[in-house]
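User: quick one, sequence for these tokens?
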């Protein structure tokens, strides 16, 4: 009887030890911590900000071009006006 009880207890310890499986290793990537919806929203926001800055740069280039053209017209008008009066 003692051998049977000892065998049963040893069997319980053995099954308890093998039944516990280690937790799966977590994959740690920078984006895995954020949910996909949040990541998509952040990407959309970044794209919108990039578009705004691109529009701003284009407007600045256009304004600079327009100023240059106006200055050239003014300079041409100034140089032709005195020549016409002479």
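Assistant:
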């Amino acid at each position: 009887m003692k051998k049977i009880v000892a065998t049963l207890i040893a069997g319980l310890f053995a099954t308890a030890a093998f039944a516990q499986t280690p937790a799966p290793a977590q994959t740690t990537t920078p984006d895995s911590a954020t949910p996909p919806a949040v990541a998509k929203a952040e990407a959309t926001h970044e794209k919108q900000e990039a578009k705004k800055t691109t529009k701003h740069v284009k407007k600045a280039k256009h304004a600079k071009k327009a100023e240059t053209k106006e200055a050239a017209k003014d300079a041409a008008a100034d140089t032709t006006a005195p020549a016409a009066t002479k």
